[in-house]
Design a protein that fits this description.
CATH class of the largest domain in chain A: Alpha Beta
EC number (chains A, B): 2.1.1.193
Largest sheet of chain A: 6 strands, mixed
Structural class of chain A: alpha/beta
Order of helices and strands of chain A: EEEHEEEEHEHEHEHHEHEH
Domain Ribosomal RNA small subunit methyltransferase E methyltransferase (chains A, B): 73-241
Strand content of chain A: 25-35%
CATH architecture of the largest domain in chain A: 3-Layer(aba) Sandwich
Strand order of the largest sheet of chain A: 1-4-5-6-3-2
Mean pLDDT of chain A: 94
Radius of gyration of chain A: 20 Å
Helix content of chain A: 25-40%
Distance between the termini of chain A: 28 Å
Number of strands of chain A: 12
Enzyme class (chains A, B): transferase
Number of helices of chain A: 8
Largest interface: A-B, 35 and 35 residues
Oligomer: homodimer
Function (chains A, B): Specifically methylates the N3 position of the uracil ring of uridine 1498 (m3U1498) in 16S rRNA. Acts on the fully assembled 30S ribosomal subunit.
Keywords (chains A, B): Cytoplasm, Methyltransferase, rRNA processing, S-adenosyl-L-methionine, Transferase
Amino acid sequence: MQRYFLPRESFVNDTATLPADVVHHIGTVLRETPGYRMVLLDGTGLEYEAEVVTLEKKTGTARVLERRQATTELPVDVTLAYALPKGDKIELVAQKGTELGMHHFWVFESKRSVAKWDAKKAPKKVERLQKIMQEAAEQSYRAVVPMCQHIRPRELTDRIDSFDAVVIAYEEQAKQGEQAAFATVLKALRPGVKLLLIVGPEGGFDESEVNEWTERGAQACAFGPRILRSETAPLYALAAVSYALELN
Amino acid sequence: MQRYFLPRESFVNDTATLPADVVHHIGTVLRETPGYRMVLLDGTGLEYEAEVVTLEKKTGTARVLERRQATTELPVDVTLAYALPKGDKIELVAQKGTELGMHHFWVFESKRSVAKWDAKKAPKKVERLQKIMQEAAEQSYRAVVPMCQHIRPRELTDRIDSFDAVVIAYEEQAKQGEQAAFATVLKALRPGVKLLLIVGPEGGFDESEVNEWTERGAQACAFGPRILRSETAPLYALAAVSYALELN
């Protein structure tokens, strides 16, 4: 069944108000009519099986038939803090990271980030990533759309204390043959805890950055013995979180 | 250190003959000269620390200083059989699959593959993927370049018996909440065995295909409760293989 995220306030009792973009998708793209069944999501983790009742040009309503807790969210709350890479790789990570279950996507400029977002353009870039993430969330049966934020490196450091576990992807660890740290962190996670994954740009992190974070309790980890590209490391990490916590 | 794959016959005693593309990269791209140190790979799993001795216009030689077994290969031999997706996603999977450690990359047309490679064009497409995989292997510190082959669906089915374990990515399993099968397969793997991962195109596999393979011993698996895109599923599977066998 087709899935649509709706603002939370769209749901009143057993009726959901459908916004213009959803109405357009149902009526014009899918050419469906009242009676069409779909899944609506309020972004809090609930999903609603619903049926279209009215379909006007720019608005519509649906009747909720069943309300249930979604079972497609990772059992831990995962934030990916990703240092801005070159080109459009950030979009790949936004999309795949959503499919793989991340809950928050923080973009920041690390010391070796070649690309920079200027303050004026950043909101537009965040908005574009947010749109990619919403589409990916609908496609992948997520019950929550991850939130994208552009943050300063200082904020990242300051927020470390609010997490239960913090992992830094650090390729020096891979080169030195360190292998156990990441699995040790994942095995200690309990449902509901907050995990932060910090992944660097093409040139990796500066040692001073890694030191600043490890002093606050972050763990530098290798994701296997191979050297992964900047955009591959977050996908490895998220797949491993899913494997360790959902399949094992 | 920069890494280059050389044909096996380039190594004679302690001398390696450098082909034109490597000479071009060292002399023209990097602007290096005799004395430059690098790692040469013969594609069998050995790596050679070496120093440039001569650098002509189209050829050169290097002296091997140290020869060692690489430690960057997955402990099991992994073949990814990937049903042709739309567009250029196949290139993403070739590149990321190499970074994540696959050894063989088989491309085939499944029943729901919208894209088709005609017999005339296939060799050129395979050659292009092979080039992407060689570059990815050098960048990711692999000791082996995965081999790309375009095979017929019939061949895939016939080859299943030659593997120790065969996993089919099957999203119907994800929708039904099946979660344990993949981890059960991975936990039973011993070093050196042969694992085949079969991943479908955008529309997934036809039930008849899955039945044909499971009758021969393949295991249909979910990669977590979310629905992954065709190009994301192989990356999840390979990351999980690495996590289960290399980090645990």
